[in-house]
Amino acid sequence: MNDKNSCDEPCPIARSLAFLGDTWSLLILRDAHFGLTRFDQFRKSLGIAPTMLTRRLATLTEEGILEKRLYSERPPREEYVLTAAGRDFLPVLIMIGAWGSQHRSGGKLVYIEDAETGQAIKPVAIDEVTGAKIGSRPIRFVLPEDD
Amino acid sequence: MNDKNSCDEPCPIARSLAFLGDTWSLLILRDAHFGLTRFDQFRKSLGIAPTMLTRRLATLTEEGILEKRLYSERPPREEYVLTAAGRDFLPVLIMIGAWGSQHRSGGKLVYIEDAETGQAIKPVAIDEVTGAKIGSRPIRFVLPEDD
DNA sequence: TAACATTGCTTTCAAAATGATAGTAACACT
DNA sequence: AGTGTTACTATCATTTTGAAAGCAATGTTA
């Protein structure tokens, strides 16, 4: 239950955390969802050291969460855009934010709204099958047996 | 955008990450939701060094996510139980796990089921107001002005 | 009653990760 | 020719982490 990158881990939470368990990667993903794509945009937005940023972008790229795209041939320049896996990470970020809004409020707080209707969004996690809110009923973690 | 505990941060994601942005804290919370409460249970489950565990439990306790409870007077022994804020973190963990299941699958994978009905749970994040899946419509991050 | 086990830590120290600062490479612009 | 932009790399001090051992308060066993 403790090694980082080999991941024979049967726990999907641990698998996610194996490479998303640091603050910078998550903040980079937040900014990527916000629309940033370039090295210097991330660097300025986050105040991150370039060494760190290089490493984090490389890892996220290797992991298939971001991908490099050439946006200028002369001079050759690349930007980092979200892959499908990266875009699928939005609900996770939103739920992290929802928890922060509820339990770490105080002062000005960013909220999210529908880009078209302008309606504020109240994110909740539910079970798609029954529609019940996650947390409203007791759950169990199950490790499937191979019979 | 990078200091940990002062948090005048207007971004709720950054606020959450300020103290939840490390793997150990999240794995401790996972185990706490799984039912573990004692120092040695966490230590054995995670294979974490006691130094680390002490510090992480102390931080989570200070932050009001866990609280200490005396479970034996002689000898005096304490356990760590989730507070309301800690219990509210479950949807975040579940969404992290859901992403891992989708994008880091392979081999045996733990899944979650309803503890009473035994029905497997498919977690999704939706907007409670409209019922739309998070990610199905474009969203915007908004920083409120103080007029 | 002496010895060992249990639980929840603390101490120590080496190794790894991080952060700050400076520098570089490839070009464009003036 | 000199300056600016973008995306980095190199260097090195500081901080964090991890592994191992030790310890205190009690209970249990012989």
From TrEMBL, chains A, B:
**Cross-referenced InterPro entries, in alphabetical order?**
HTH_HxlR, WH-like_DNA-bd_sf, WH_DNA-bd_sf
Q: Does the keyword DNA-binding apply?
A: yes
Q: Which UniProt keywords apply?
A: DNA-binding, Transcription, Transcription regulation
Domain of life per record: Bacteria
- Which PROSITE patterns does this one have? HTH_HXLR
Pfam families linked to this entry = HxlR
Domain HTH hxlR-type as annotated: residue spans: 11-108
Signal peptide residue numbers:
none
Listed PANTHER family: TRANSCRIPTIONAL REGULATOR, MARR FAMILY, TRANSCRIPTIONAL REGULATORY PROTEIN
What is the designated name of this protein?
Helix-turn-helix transcriptional regulator
Q: Upper taxonomic classification of the species?
A: Bacteria, Pseudomonadati, Pseudomonadota, Gammaproteobacteria, Methylococcales
